[in-house]
Write a structure and sequence with these properties.
- The chain is of the alpha/beta class.
- It has two domains: about 200 residues, NAD(P)-binding Rossmann-like Domain (Rossmann fold, 3-Layer(aba) Sandwich); about 100 residues, UDP-galactose 4-epimerase, domain 1 (Alpha-Beta Complex), CATH 3.90.25.
- Helix content is about 45%, strand content about 15%.
- The strands form four sheets. The protein has a six-stranded parallel beta sheet with strand order 3-2-1-4-5-7, with helices on both faces. It has a three-stranded parallel beta sheet with strand order 6-8-12.
- The longest helix is centred in the first third of the chain and has 21 residues.
- The chain is globular, with a radius of gyration of 19 Å.
- It starts with 8 loop residues before the first strand and ends with a helix.
- The relative contact order is 0.14.
């Protein structure tokens, strides 16, 4: 898709881990005034407020979405508003309400206003204990054991239905754990892979809530953003899949991550005290086959464990030295 195909972009969940950085990347690419950030209750960062429009909406109330769509003449939506896995297990009713009814409202508004395109990410949470855990295939068993996972499977199916039934161009990827140097984690099972960097910088010690041998697929935020934009700009005629692309960048254990950090901070100590999130992690894949994404829209990550760790520690270390961490 050429840049000219999209004139006004709406980003829901713009205050979240992915949304906050994706919004800024989209503004740099398409123009500040052409990317409207929306959140629910979280106070937006200064960057979100000073670089372009920001509005408050509630995705579970369709009229609030429509009001912003009409006001800004929106033609493209990146729908990131969601309740994540760990929070979703504590509040499953809320997870269903936000993740499913919110998505339904977004798709209905997009259909009625004949939008160009919608991006709605899925997650490795769509998989479950019966899914092959190594090199998880694109087409496989989807029987998750978390409410977050249930909503992601249902969301994939709903998005694909809107493409087939109504011709709405909905696209999405199954994101692995996302690691960011800019935004704190938002209640997911892979949060340890972000928290560990902050604690390593500040205290040289971290207590990890999964086992040392827990291996999960991960991705650095620059690749996360790159994937969303690359997929949305891909030629529709090349896509055989739509809302459910497997996506991968790297897989590593919690212990391997700690060891990589120790290459930069030798005195760093990591302890392991698994909690309820261990069972969630054990139901997810260890590695992902993302060959469909590579073949259909040219997906290729730029960061591995070593490159990500070096970049994270450099950026966080600089902010800590400046008193901004």
């Amino acid at each position: 898709m050429a840049k000219s195909d999209m004139t006004k972009i709406l980003v829901t969940g713009a205050c979240g881990q992915i949304g906050s950085e994706l919004t800024l990347a989209l503004r740099r690419r398409y123009g500040n005034e052409n990317v409207i950030a929306v959140g629910h209750r979280t106070k937006p960062s200064e960057a979100l407020c000073t670089t372009g429009p920001f509005e408050y909406i509630d995705v579970t109330r369709r009229e609030t979405i429509e009001e912003v769509v009409r006001k800004y003449k929106i033609d493209t939506i990146y729908h990131l508003a969601a309740i994540l896995s760990a929070v979703g297990e504590k509040k499953p009713q809320l997870a269903w309400e936000v993740n499913m009814n919110g998505l339904y409202n977004v798709l209905e508004v997009a259909r009625e206003y004949e939008m160009v395109r919608v991006f709605c990410p899925s997650s490795i949470a769509a998989f479950g204990p019966e899914t092959p855990r190594d090199n998880t295939p694109q087409e496989t068993v989807l029987r998750p054991t978390t409410m977050y996972g249930v909503t992601k499977v249902a969301g994939e199916l709903l998005c694909n239905y809107y493409f087939i039934r109504f011709g709405l161009d909905v696209r999405g990827v199954r994101y692995p754990g996302i690691i960011s140097s800019e935004t704190l984690p938002g209640g997911g099972t892979t949060d340890y892979a972000v928290e560990i960097f902050y604690e390593a910088i500040k205290h040289k010690r971290y207590t990890c809530f999964v086992r040392e041998d827990t291996v999960l697929p991960m991705m650095y935020m620059p690749d996360c953003i790159k994937a969303a934009i690359d997929l949305m700009e891909a030629d529709l005629s090349r896509l055989k899949h739509h809302a459910d692309f497997n996506l991968s960048a790297m897989s590593f254990s919690a212990g391997e991550l700690a060891a990589e950090i120790r290459k930069h901070i030798p005195e760093f100590v990591c302890e392991y005290k698994p909690d309820f999130r261990q069972a969630i992690a054990d139901s997810w894949p260890r590695s992902i086959d993302d060959s469909a994404a590579r073949q259909e829209w040219g997906w290729e990550p730029e960061y591995d464990l070593a490159a990500m760790t070096a970049d994270m520690l450099e950026k966080l270390g600089r902010r800590y030295a400046e008193g901004r961490l």
